[in-house]
Amino acid sequence: MKNLFSTSIGKKFAMAISAIFLMIFLLQHFIINITSVFSEDIFNMLSHFMGTNFLVQFILQPILIAGVLFHFIMGFYLEIQNRKAAKYEYQKEKGSANSTWMSRNMITSGLVILAFLVLHFIDFWVPEMNHKYIEFLPEDPNRYFKHLVHKFENPLRVAMYCLAFVLLALHLLHGFTSSLRSMGTNKRYVASAKTAGIIYSIGIPLGFCVIAIFHYLNQ
Amino acid sequence: MKLKLKIWRQKNSESKGKIIDYDIENISPDMSFLEMLDVLNADLISKDEDPVSFDHDCREGICGSCSLFINGQAHGPDRLVTTCQLHMRKFKDGDTIYIEPFRAKAFPVIKDLVVDRSAFDRIQHAGGYISVNTSGNTQDANSIPINKDDADSAFDAATCIGCGACVAACKNSSAMLFVGAKVSQYSLLPQGQTEASRRVVNMVNQMDLEGFGNCSNTGACEVECPKGISLDNIARMNRELLKASVKK
Questions:
Q1: CB contact at 8 A, B241 and B191
Q2: In terms of CATH architecture, what is B117-131+146-247?
Q3: Whole-angstrom Cα distance, residue A51 to residue A141?
Q4: Residue A1 has pLDDT above 60, yes or no
Q5: B184 close contact with A: CB closer than 8 A
Q6: Residue A124 CA to chain centroid, in angstroms?
Q7: Who contacts B244 (Cβ-Cβ below 8 Å, separation ≥6)?
């Protein structure tokens, strides 16, 4: 397999694998977060489990961070390579005649998602790491819901989150089927996965928007 | 019809080109796009000016020579046609038409609208063939039963004329639709399967060496392809390369 990853197709394959891994993580993240709309206790219980379980904290979390970093770094690397290959610009180009905006602007939506992730890490991940591994504060299993609600007090933050989710939806709308094609998936399966992809790509970001707006309105 | 043409003029591969404006009159809507350029060139020659260089050969959509980027689209605004099959009735009287060469680092401009597409030839040479014993004992191809769906898909892939519209339309200048079509054409048939692994590895390596970009599945190539080559051929090539890598 060594030679595979030195080819352009191999790099796209690796990109697709990381994308699918991140989509699975996103689904899991959404399932936990949506419980906050229905039940404070269930959300606290699940968050406490995720925040204290050894496997999640010391095995899955580093894999996830590596996956996120790999996806962004490989995305930038491929973008630079593509720009080099297409170094001459047309005087007149009608991209909209043959492709969708989201397929042509994956790097733009990706950059917005990256900016969002920085904000999201500052909001949730950094305080969490600080709480557990720097200040070694005592664990309160009921602190998670309060922290979540507190973050959505600010309408500007809610608006920023929702904007990022719109870009995430656009990114996923192309990325879902694109990753399947990059992995060489047979056309029969790509066609059946298309509807599931649209439901996932719109449903998950929309659900995250609902969570942010719900907690803002329920202050 | 009276038209304003904005044509990319470039003296040679070394010089820096630019768009030059030309006004042209008495164009019939029944003319082909290349005939319209013939009229322009006749006019330029009569004025002792350098005619516009452009590639053409069969003028019936088979050879893949014509390669113009017209008003922001490879082979112009019509679907499933090459530039030579594009007719002036697709434009309106008074229109301004941008005419540019196919753009890619791997397709350097030779002069005006003529680009060097020999990168495609080198990819073909790397594996786009089957090794056949032609000593007189060649087996009749019809004696090998082939699934109809596979035969149809192989034929569809084989209709690629290698014009380069896929590269020109792709924002990444990727050649994967071309290579995918050539790989599929053989890998779907028993005659091509024996060398399938070596073929896909060699062709993909050559494609990367030529400096084409990566496929991001925008689908622009499929839309602009005059032969309607499907994106499924790219997925099949990806699959073939994965299989070849696992086999190694």
A1: no
A2: Orthogonal Bundle (1.10)
A3: 9
A4: no
A5: no
A6: 15
A7: B196, B197, B198, B200, B201
What is the predicted pLDDT for the residue at B76? Answer: 97
Residues with Cβ within 8 Å of B233's Cβ and at least 6 positions away in sequence, in order, are: B157, B177, B180, B181, B183, B184
Residues of chain B falling short of pLDDT 70: 248
At A112 the pLDDT is: 97
Q: Could you tell me whether strands B3-9 and B96-101 are parallel, antiparallel, or unpaired per DSSP bridges? A: parallel
Which of B73, B205, B213 minimises the CB distance to A94?
B73
- The domains found in chain A, sorted by start residue, are 4-83+100-217 (1.20.1300.10)
The ipTM assigned to this model is: 0.91
The label of the residue with tokens 């009229």 reads B39
Give the three-state DSSP class for B32.
strand
Cβ proximity of A182 and A145 under 8 Å: no
- Mutation pick from A88, A96, A103, A172 vs chain B, by most beta carbons of B within 10 Å, is A88
B169 touches chain A (CB under 8 A): yes
Q: Could A178 and B224 be called an inter-chain contact, meaning their C-beta atoms sit closer than 8 Å? A: no
B3-111: what fold?
Ubiquitin-like (UB roll) (3.10.20)
Sole residue written with tokens 């030529």? B210
Q: Report chain B residues whose CB lies below 8 A from the CB of A7.
A: 204-205, 208, 241
Q: Residues with Cβ < 8 Å from B45, sequence gap 6 or more? A: B51
Helical axes A40-52 vs A8-38, angle rounded to 10°: 140
